[in-house]
């Protein structure tokens, strides 16, 4: 037997960097853009489309755009009564800049804007720690955010107490209406939707029937109909002298509408839980509420995070429908100012709509990205 081990290396080789094609941006492009001939063709086609349209878009949005000015003359050509040369076309951000306060606050009194700003700052300060998984005092933070903050926000925004001037909700508008409607709708629709989903799966016939009737009735009619009924028909059924604020009626209508859709999303998650989970909880002697709160609901809600956030995003965008009951959110306020003769020009409407669309996109994209983050963080048992 040959015991000569001179051919065996006695020292480990130094670690070498991966080939250039297996790391960094080149690897990402090879996997995501040029993995197959079809991917390569689609990538080249997409690049050609971008190269064709992007320069013109950038030119209109930024290069030729007007950023400041006193009136419509800065966003109109000479033939239209303005100062721009013939053939000019660009975004009229001067219109957005001049009406920015209206787009944010609506007709809310200018000298009281500080109250809205304080509410916005409190909202951000309480929401951000709630969204950070490792932030401490989660329970206390949630209690303050969902129970104490709405009361403080109500007293600040409405006023009439502690020396604050009263501001009726008819003077609310712009992004203020969009955010308050969506926040209340989201906060109410999720717990109410969970209750409706559990009720629909209940073994008690009366509760199940009531939940089914509510869900199917609400899902069978448009949100516009719900808003019309809440705004114009509900007062007809109230006793003489009894009335609800129109904004409160809109809040109730939006929350109830979203809760019906949320109930079906949650019910889908409940049905996706294997039967063994229910049997395992029963074998431990857990009560119905212990089983539901500790075993079933956490798993079900984790599975339907995309559906829940999709409902939130839809609710956030649907707040624009309150325009039909003479309430003006961000989009409604932007469209309302199209009639301002001081800024009437061919470039004004599209500039205002792009601004409103960009604001909506920021909030919806933020919700979408946080949804993806939470999915990756919680998806431990279903990874492929």
TrEMBL record:
GO terms for biological process: amino acid transport. The keyword Membrane applies. InterPro entries: AA_ABC_transptr_permease_3TM, ArtM/GltK/GlnP/TcyL/YhdX-like, MetI-like, MetI-like_sf. It holds the Pfam family BPD_transp_1. The keyword Transmembrane applies. It is found in: Cell inner membrane; Cell membrane. This is Amino acid ABC transporter permease. Keywords: Cell membrane, Membrane, Transmembrane, Transmembrane helix, Transport. GO terms for molecular function: transmembrane transporter activity. Residues 175-371 form the ABC transmembrane type-1 domain. It comes from Phyllobacterium pellucidum. Its main location: membrane.
